[in-house]
């Protein structure tokens, strides 16, 4: 992947401004937050400002095991994420909602948006509620995208399913028959 020319220039100069963004795709709405000032629209998605976003470092496992991380959003009127905006997420069906964490690259000279680089990705498991100095806080417990490695798909190792993929292929012609047969084995 190539970065925009202007981003390559400011990166090579060591002057790029990097901010974090989070996109949460709930059942009826998609919500974006970023730790900058003012609203920003990236790829058609509006991101509300919140300088108090915290994303924990993912806890990694071995192999294809899913890792976990948390995303904390604090509702403070002066941070841009007002309590009513935070309440929108709570009213949504957020279980298993996809979450993507981004690095947003900003031009240091004119503060224009240059590029969004996706980072951590996962699905909301639960949301905890707490208070931070009297302000409401949501803590989303996120399972990494590797959880999809263990989700059952709709495909099966059967003759019928193989015909959908490759008509005429006989590789699984006996798979469903053998799968359900039982054998009596006698030893003399």
Please specify the SSE layout and strand pairing:
Layout lengths: L4 H8 L4 E9 L4 E5 L5 E3 L2 E5 L4 E2 L12 E7 L8 H8 L7 E9 L6 E20 L2 E10 L14 H7 L9 H6 L8
Parallel strand pairs: 2-4
Antiparallel strand pairs: 1-2, 1-7, 3-4, 5-6, 6-9, 7-8, 8-9
Structural features, described:
The mean pLDDT is 79. A 9-stranded mixed β-sheet has the order 3-4-2-1-7-8-9-6-5. The chain is built from 4 helices and 9 strands, in the order αββββββαβββαα. With 188 residues, the chain is of the alpha+beta class. The chain is extended. The protein starts with a helix and ends in an 8-residue tail after the last helix.
Q: Which terms would index this structure?
A:
alpha+beta; 9 strands; extended
Largest sheet, described in full?
9 strands, mixed
- Into which percent range does the helicity of residues fall? 10-25%
| Element order: H for helix, E for strand | HEEEEEEHEEEHH
Record the strand order, biggest sheet.
Answer: 3-4-2-1-7-8-9-6-5
Number of contiguous helices = 4
Output the radius of gyration: 24 Å
Amount of beta strand: 35-45%
Shape: extended
Low-confidence parts:
none
Mean pLDDT: 79
Number of strands: 9
Helix and strand composition category: alpha+beta
Distance between the termini: 66 Å
Supply the number of structural domains. Answer: 2
